[in-house]
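Hello Y.,

Per our agreement to keep a running log of every chain we model this quarter, I'm adding this entry. I've kept the format consistent with earlier entries: sequence first, then predicted structure.
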Amino acid sequence: MSDKTDPDPNLSFVDRLPLTRAAIEFASEHHAGQRRRADEAPFVLHPIEAASLLERSHYPDHVVAAAVLHDVLEDTDVQRSELESRFGADVAELVATVSDDPSIANEEGQKDETRERVRKAGGYAAAVYAADKISKVRELRTMMARGIGSDEVRVKRERYRKSLAMLDEAIPGSRLVELLRFELEALDKLPPEGG
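Predicted structure for the entry above:
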C-alpha cells in the first residue's frame, strides 16, 4: 500500500487470521482513494471495523474476511469470480449475500431485497450484515454531529430499524443484534449535538 493514510493490514486482531489479513490487503488496494463520508477516514476503516466486531464475537477467519470484503462488489470493480478464486466459495457467497443487487434501480428496493436475502440465509451472512449495520449506525452518529440533513437521517434510521427487526428474527439473541439495538437506542435517546 503506497497511501500512508491507509490502515496497516497488520492490525493486532488479525494476528491469527491469515485469510482476514489477505482480505485487508485486497480491500485496501481496491478501496484505495475512497473516503468515508462521515469523517473522511479511508473507506476501508468501515469494513475493518465490521470485521473487528466479528472477530471479537469469535467468528471464524472466513467470516471475518468476508466482513472485510463486504463492500468490494458494490463499491469497486471486483467481480464475484475474483473473490471466489482468491478467498474461496464460502467467502464469495457471504459477500454476495450481503451486497445490494445493482440490477434493482430503486435504492429502497435494493435495501429491502438485500435484507430479505440475508434473512433467508441467516447464520454467518446475518452476522456479517449485523456488523456492517453496527458500523454504519456509528458513522451516522458522526454524520449527524456534522449536520447531515434530517430527511437523510430519517431514511437511514428507518432502514437500520428494519435491519434490526430482521436480525432479531434471523439470529435472535446474538451479541451483534444486541449491540445494534444499543447503538440505535443510543442514537435515539442520546443524539449528538447538531443531530
